[in-house]
């Protein structure tokens, strides 16, 4: 049974694809999403085998969303679009397949045949990691998505409630991206199991009497540095 998530900002397109997929008894549609941030959350939570992903979506398009997925849990991607000119780009991004909208049953069946065949072969590493850096960090607000420029980010913190991004005013913004994705796809450096920092915003490294270490930002906010990452941090700073 293949676990599938459909991601498309247009309801009629989602409904059409759902109806076509439901003709295959070996397909289980576990979620439908109408934007990239919702999709990232559901992909990390449900870990589907396949994502049918629309390319042209507001705020964050399908290509950008693909670069934001955790490389350790990235599923097979079948891109959806009404425009054929995106085909080359789709395969450059290591897409499993590319379907033109409106999706037709005959063409979809060919994709499903290949998907089922690959699963029977036990091939789980079908998506090669493309080290495409992020231009910004998408964060979720009330009925909106904030796109935070990397140069405005001071640090990122992992809490029980999720991953939060902090700026110069120490305002926190929730993001669906994982620390692993942010570490791999941005210039932010890990200084602690729960923290990534922007080296350009640091003012000093402070050693306290109890043997602990903190980094101090130019806005005088501090975050801890673990002994495990201290040497790495100092090397990155040229110390």
Structural description of this entry:
Helices cover 28% and strands 32% of the residues. The chain has seven helices and 15 strands. Strand 13 and strand 14 form a beta hairpin.
Summarize the structure.
This protein has about 240 residues and is an alpha/beta fold. It has helices spanning about 10-20, 35-45, 60-70, 85-90, 105-120, 180-185, 225-235, and strands at about 1-5, 25-35, 50-55, 75-80, 95-100, 135-140, 145-150, 155-160, 160-165, 170-175, 190, 195, 200-205, 215, 220-225. Helices cover about 30% and strands about 30% of the residues.
Q: What low-confidence regions span 5 or more consecutive residues with pLDDT below 50?
A: 124-128
Helix-strand makeup class: alpha/beta
Give the rounded overall mean pLDDT: 89
Largest sheet data: 5 strands, parallel
Head-to-tail CA distance between termini = 53 Å
Helix content: 25-40%
Number of helices: 7
Order of helices and strands: EHEHEHEHEHEEEEEHEEEEEH
Give the DSSP E fraction (strand runs of 2 or more residues): 25-35%
Radius of gyration: 21 Å
Basic shape: elongated
How many strands appear in the DSSP assignment? 15
**Going across the major beta sheet, what is the strand order?**
2-1-3-4-5
């Amino acid at each position: 049974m293949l676990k599938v998530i459909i991601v498309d900002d247009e309801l009629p397109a989602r409904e059409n694809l759902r109806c076509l997929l439901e003709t295959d008894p070996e397909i289980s549609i576990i979620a439908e999403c109408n934007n990239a941030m919702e999709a990232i959350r559901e992909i990390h939570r449900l870990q589907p085998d396949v994502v049918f992903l629309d390319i042209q979506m507001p705020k964050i398009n399908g290509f950008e969303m693909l670069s934001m997925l955790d490389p350790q849990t990235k599923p097979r991607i079948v891109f959806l679009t009404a425009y054929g000119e995106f085909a080359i780009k789709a395969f450059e991004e290591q897409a499993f397949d590319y379907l033109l909208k409106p999706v037709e049953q005959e063409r979809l069946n060919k994709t499903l045949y290949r998907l089922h065949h690959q699963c029977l072969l036990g091939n789980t590493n079908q998506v090669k990691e493309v080290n495409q850096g992020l231009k910004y960090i998408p964060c979720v607000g009330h009925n909106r998505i904030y796109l935070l420029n990397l140069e405005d980010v001071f640090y990122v913190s992992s809490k029980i409630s999720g991953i939060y991004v902090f700026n110069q005013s120490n305002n926190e913004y929730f993001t669906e991206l994982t620390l692993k994705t942010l570490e791999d796809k941005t210039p932010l450096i890990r200084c602690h199991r729960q923290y990534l920092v922007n080296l350009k915003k640091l003012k000093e490294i402070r050693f306290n009497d109890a043997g602990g270490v903190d980094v101090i930002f130019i806005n005088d906010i501090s975050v801890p540095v673990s002994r495990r990452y201290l040497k790495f941090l100092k090397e990155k700073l040229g110390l």
